[in-house]
Amino acid sequence: MNNNVTILTADKQSGKTTFLTLWSKARKDVGGILTPVLNGERHFYNITDGSDFLMEASADEDFFSVGNYRFSVGAFEKASALLVEKSNDPQIKTLVIDEIGPLEIQQKRGLYDVFCKLLNQQREHALLIVVRPSLVDKVLDMLKSSDKQVKVIHLNEINKPQGGN
């Protein structure tokens, strides 16, 4: 079983989603969701098939509020179902969740339930989750009770040149 969890962290709008998009593009063993901004609107992006759907709520649908944002309850349900589906796909070796943020940590909504479910599953895939720096300690506290091996990587460490003077 793979009990690895990697937390990718960096400040808001620092390129985490762009990095993961490029990293996952040529890989057939990566699944999950990314959250790019497309045409000024936040979307969920299915890594496996390249499809996307709007994360933000329209005026007439149920929503979660975080700051000035209104997120669609239905979109989060669809994203959660996609994560469960990909967690059961034997071809997926790394499952990506972009991101576990204030909605999940402070309100226990959004992707919170599916995240907890995935932490408790014994699967063949590793989890790679995006977490902003201010929430890393809270996510690490959540992971303490799991049997997962956790590694925190800052995006700057990945982009840092190796060796040299």
Structure description:
This protein has about 160 residues and is an alpha/beta fold. It has one domain (about 5-155): Rossmann fold, CATH 3.40.50. The protein contains six helices and ten strands. Strands 1, 2, 3, 4, 5, 8, 9 and 10 form an eight-stranded mixed β-sheet that branches. A hairpin with a 2-residue loop joins strand 3 (about 35-40) and strand 4. The mean pLDDT is about 90.
Index terms:
165 residues; alpha/beta; Rossmann fold; eight-stranded mixed sheet; two-stranded antiparallel sheet; 6 helices; 10 strands; 31% helix
Map the helices and strands.
Layout: E1 4-9, H1 16-25, E2 30-34, E3 37-38, E4 41-46, E5 52-54, E6 63-66, E7 69-72, H2 73-87, E8 94-98, H3 102-105, H4 112-120, E9 126-130, H5 136-143, E10 149-154, H6 155-159
Helix pairs in contact: 2-4
User: How many domain modules?
Assistant: 1
Largest sheet: 8 strands, mixed
SSE succession = EHEEEEEEHEHHEHEH
Helix content: 25-40%
Poorly predicted runs of 5 or more residues: none
What Rg, in angstroms, do the CA atoms define?
15 Å
Number of strands: 10
Principal-axis shape equals globular
The fourth-level CATH homologous superfamily is P-loop containing nucleotide triphosphate hydrolases
- Corresponding CATH architecture: 3-Layer(aba) Sandwich
